[in-house]
Amino acid sequence: MIIQKEYKFYAAHRNEELDDKCSNLHGHRYGLRCFFEVKRSGALSTLFGDFDAKIDPYLKDQYDHGMLIHTGDSLYATLQDHMQRTGERFKLKVLDGPTSVENLAHKMFTEITEMGFRLQQLEVRETDTSVVTYTRDDWDEHNRDMAAEQAAATS
């Protein structure tokens, strides 16, 4: 059985690898649509509130009104230096790769799965007309590729 839940958060980002408007710092109202695989036992499977109790606070703490940033972005080092010098703190959600919606979908799929939920699919909406659909098969493939890359790097 599939239970579907939707969430929203606001975040800034830029994709420093692009040579267009997206290389500039800007923000989005991101939308998430989660498709959870659940097992029914008795009259119900999982309460909607069980998802909200973990995911809502996590999004507020880690993502909402923060900045998505890639460790390889030169702005990351600048912001780290600024925070160290001034004591000012920014909410930075650090990604291992560019802050594309595709990379964000992988990161969020991983994080929600680590909360103990089984996702079948995750849709990440960057704008009203731009959505990435990321499936369990995509996640499994990505993780296999990453494991193979790590194995090759250590041999």
Automatic annotation (TrEMBL):
Secretion signal span: none
UniProt superkingdom: Bacteria
Xref: Pfam families: PTPS
Catalytic activity: 7,8-dihydroneopterin 3'-triphosphate + H2O = 6-carboxy-5,6,7,8-tetrahydropterin + triphosphate + acetaldehyde + 2 H(+)
EC number(s) stated in the UniProt entry for this protein: 4.1.2.50
GO MF assignments: 6-carboxytetrahydropterin synthase activity
Xref: InterPro entries: 6-PTP_synth/QueD, 6-PTP_synth/QueD_sf
Pathway: Purine metabolism; 7-cyano-7-deazaguanine biosynthesis
UniProt enzyme class: lyase
Coiled coil location: none
Annotated family: Belongs to the PTPS family. QueD subfamily.
Name under which the protein is recorded: 6-carboxy-5,6,7,8-tetrahydropterin synthase
Organism per entry: Rosistilla ulvae
